[in-house]
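Our collaborator T.R. sent over the components below with a one-line note: 'Predict the complex.' Nothing else. No constraints on interfaces, no templates requested, no preferences about which chain binds where. So this is a plain run: every listed entity goes in together, and whatever single assembly comes back becomes the starting point for the next discussion.
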Amino acid sequence: MPLWVFWQKGEDGVPREYEYIEHTGDLGFKAYGKTLQELFINAARALFHVLVSPETIEEKEKRGVTVEAAALDELMVSWLGELLYLFDTQGLLLKGFEIKTLTENRLEATVRGETMDLRRHEIKTGIKAITYHQLYVREENGLWKAQVILDL
Amino acid sequence: MADDIRVEKIDDFRWLIPRTGRMRTEGLVYADETMLAAIKKDASLQQVANVACLPGIVGRSMAMPDIHWGYGFPIGGVAAFDMDEGIISPGGVGYDINCGVRLLRSSLEAKEIKDHIPTLVNALFRNIPSGVGSRRKDLKLSAKQMDEVLAKGVKWALSHGYGTAADLQHIEEEGCIAGARPDYVSERACKRGKEQLGTLGSGNHFVEVGFVEELYDEAAATALSLFRGQMTVIVHTGSRGLGHQVCDDYIKRMLTASGKYNIHLPDKQLCCAPLTSKESRQYLAAMACAANFAFCNRQTITHWVRETFQQVLAMGPNDLELDLVYDVCHNMAKIETHKVDGKERKLCVHRKGATRAFPPHSRLIPEAYQQVGQPVLIPGDMGRYSYVLVGTEGAMKETFGSTCHGAGRRLSRHQAKKVAKGRAIVRELEDQGIYVRGAGKGTISEEISEAYKDVSDVVNVVHHAGIGKKVAKLRPMGVIKG
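Returned assembly:
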């Protein structure tokens, strides 16, 4: 059962970017994309939307990110985990995601955002980690879908 | 949701999940009838069954009455594994390795400090960084210091003036899990943790000033030096970003290991490796480091709690007597010896949102508590109450010396926010005599009383089932939340 849905008015009728799902202790989301790249970008946006309202983030700084994993679903966890690590260690709130390379096992991207400023950013909820529980990344009828459960 | 999981009633507080499919053993859930109906609504019973599928499980896959849907293991899960045939699972310990609770008693009565509560809470809020991304500016660990914290635990804190020698005996494992090897902790984990020692973090973590409202067992209370009306302090937090990273690092390794050792996983989050493997030995050594960091975190916070009280009340440490009653872990895997079918066996006991509850005369509990059993600290939600229990022989026989760990969530965080919407939660609590300061508005809404089961119901189940014994009920007066 979706909680909040963020709509995208795509011309090809693909409606959704990401939506949040109930989990008693924690929170999960489903992300969508016409391409695998779009899926990974939407998942990253869903992640930061848990922390703050995206409209409060400005793209002032950029970082290069490279992650590797044994399988596509694990690559999703590694990607989101890397972004969370940037937030945890450098206070980076991210909004712009440009994926340069994306294979089953490797992702290279440039990400943009800014350092958290508590005068402008109201942190909604902390995120401890990205879990593998009920994780999937798959393609259905030309639409890429992923489900991720967060440990809050 | 878990309608497909069959549950059979054993008695009023015990429910059996019969062995089906790939389960290697039965599941056993401690709950009363009303709770069970609620538990059935999420996927937690399926998770009890999933844990029962893991290799080398000894006894049943168990769940305490505060069970709720976790990731991999259910929260409130207890499972023991054979050292030769069994496994260890980082997901079965959780991201917040050695999340735990400590209780401080005092020489003061609640009525003496009642008027100081807002000042005290505001000072605690200033002195103990809390909330998302909280760091300490006055304690940044160098790489060498970090290694010492990870290897020595609370002993490091004491040698740096954070606490007293008496504290040490009143901490599970005396504040240091043996076998810690800092070289098995990644640089990333250390980087996450280096400014976080002495910080509360976010979520359900808190420091709470309260008082003893009710006693159920006078003799045990006396042994624990608790009396009616006494002011107490509870600290609830864990290993912060360092522990999360250790868990994350080793889950990645265990995903590979599970394939390597041909372990069937009902859920990737349950990934694990044989206890005899290199992967497991390294995880245990890294987990011990994260646990020691968590012990040290609660210890340094205790130091700043004591300092805050001394400043605000203008009292010396000897007058305050803010002594440690006990410190328990509730996200851990421990190597312990238990009697199984009359024989002593070394086992790896996973407690994921469950507390060790060793009985009287256990070698592993402090001298002062030999006659009454190990203190078990069960925090409730911020608007109601918390409990002090002691461990029992019953727990030793049935649950590998384990009992519940808290109230257990009833509402998701989103549901809780919905319930809290439009209400002035801080004001409502103040009307009930509880002064709350939180780092984020969101946290306070997510943590409202209605979001949790009534911890009394949880504690009553373990008390009546004989896997814990009620000693005292504590009522909050002031809380700082992450």
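Summary for T.R.: Chain A touches chain B at residues 3, 20, 22-27, 51, 69-70, 73-74, 78, 81, 85, 87-89, 91, 116, 122-126, 128-135, 149, 151-152 (CB under 8 Å).
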